[in-house]
Design brief:
Blueprint (H helix, E strand, L loop, with lengths): L3 H12 L24 H14 L9 E6 L1 H12 L3 E7 L5 H9 L4 E6 L7 H10 L4 E6 L10 H15 L1
Parallel strand pairs: 1-2, 2-3, 3-4
Length: 168
């Protein structure tokens, strides 16, 4: 939660008057519980959405979900099946057959962003995820960015803000 990617995107969203809610998955930081192999963490995402839309200042009809790296693999299945989520940003999502299958059937507006120098997400796999993803989709391949996005946070944050601003 307290890394450069999440902090940069959250700050950029707030600057554009878009509420941003960050949380740690179970067993991370001060959060209770234990690692759930990406499955139990989907419950964390759904619970976070429920809590967020219960807040008086939040419009429950305008919810976007962002996931970075492991968080993207957890956010994807939740966003694709949870009708409360209207748009999805997937940042440096590690590839896998499950992710490609979910992308194929996910009709929600989505941003898939990856750096050309990402050592976790091979360039050919990032392109394959984009190729297989259902419309509507936006694919952003940022030249020079690696998995940690150091020095590219502002560019990335701008892409996420544009997605959410355009959908809400």
């Amino acid at each position: 939660m307290n890394n450069n990617v999440i902090m940069a995107v959250s700050s950029a969203l707030v600057e554009k008057s878009i509420a941003a809610f960050m949380f740690n998955f179970r067993g991370v930081g001060s959060s209770q519980g234990n690692y759930g192999d990406g499955i139990a963490e989907q419950e964390d995402v759904a619970a976070a959405i429920s809590w967020l839309i219960s807040q008086p200042a939040v419009d429950g009809d305008r919810v976007g979900l962002l996931g970075y790296s492991f968080g993207a693999t957890v956010a994807l299945p939740v966003a694709c099946t949870d009708e409360r989520v209207k748009a999805l940003a997937l940042i440096s999502m590690p590839p896998g057959s499950s992710q490609i299958s979910q992308l194929k059937s996910c009709p929600k507006p989505k941003l898939i962003a990856c750096g050309t120098d990402d050592f976790v997400v091979p360039l050919d796999q990032a392109k394959l995820m984009n190729q297989e993803a259902a419309e509507p989709k936006q694919f952003e391949l940022i030249d020079g960015a690696d998995h940690f996005w150091l020095g590219y946070e502002t560019v990335l944050a701008g892409k996420v803000v544009a997605l959410f601003k355009g959908k809400f």
